[in-house]
């Protein structure tokens, strides 16, 4: 078994999206090849209603899949397929934009004004860019939650983890997406297949992820890597990008640590991307925007 070294530790950056929603972007736009098949991760946790209520009015998507995971508050949505509804705390919304969809997402806070959650974009391979759009909504009780002997809790959004499958199926990138909480002071190893790109996004507590490639001091007997200085602390809004290996290892801090652990098989295809549309060539991208102008974007 080999521990995945840390390739990079990044802090999510403030940005504005939609009609003026304040959020933090962990990664997205620019060169995202190290995250392939993923394109973007937005952290839209916010406790100030005026910073998010303008929401994300009607806008198009093509060539991607989006996975929205809500922790607090609700997101009301509608789309050109006729779907309407709301996802609340613990719920998941999965949308395959495929050949084209127009939708809106309008966040509403809970009674204390909290609107917390994440949106992950997964790329579609060229063979599925123009597939029929699809939509799936998963309610919180349908999401498997497993507790290990040491108290570590894993909520499986999609993919297979610890022998259990999450409820979201059919995503081309075949992601494994798990919400992991490790109790205070515990050290935990978690499996990640070697063929996958993988990252963790910390959103509560803090801890150290093992950096096997760093210049660690030679430990004395009985002293593990987590007791030496070089591994960096990863705290709230920290993104940890992992190198290759088949496990990740984390040492939870005194308040424990909670993070998203996400991995997927890279597509290794060219990316032509502008705003909400992601294709393989500039010609395909231009065609999509021309169709938007002509009113022929949505296909029957």
List keywords for this structure.
Jelly Rolls, seven-stranded antiparallel β-sheet, 300 residues, globular, 4% helix, 1 helix, mainly beta
Provide an overview of this structure.
This protein is mainly beta and 300 residues long. The chain has a single domain, classed as Jelly Rolls (Sandwich). The chain has one helix and 24 strands. The strands form five sheets. Strands 1, 13, 14, 17, 18, 19, 20, 21 and 22 form a nine-stranded antiparallel sheet that branches. A seven-stranded antiparallel sheet has the order 2-3-4-11-6-9-12, with no helix packed on it. Strands 5-10-7-8 form a four-stranded antiparallel sheet, with no helix packed on it. The model is unreliable at 213-231 (pLDDT under 50).
Overview in brief:
The chain is mainly beta and 300 residues long. The chain has one helix and 24 strands. It has one domain: Sandwich (Jelly Rolls).
What is Rg? 19 Å
Instruction: Count every helix, treating DSSP H or I runs of 4 or more residues as helices.
Output: 1
What is the CATH topology descriptor? Jelly Rolls
Mean pLDDT, rounded to whole units?
90
What is the strand and helix layout of this fold?
Blueprint: E1 6-11, E2 13-17, E3 21-28, E4 38-43, E5 56-61, E6 64-72, E7 74-79, E8 84-87, E9 92-96, E10 101-108, E11 116-123, E12 134-138, E13 145-147, E14 153-158, E15 160-161, E16 164-165, E17 176-182, E18 187-191, E19 197-209, E20 233-234, E21 238-242, E22 247-264, E23 272-274, E24 277-279, H1 282-294
Antiparallel strand pairs: 1-21, 2-3, 3-4, 4-11, 5-10, 6-9, 6-11, 7-8, 7-10, 9-12, 13-14, 14-17, 15-16, 17-22, 18-22, 19-20, 19-21, 19-22, 23-24
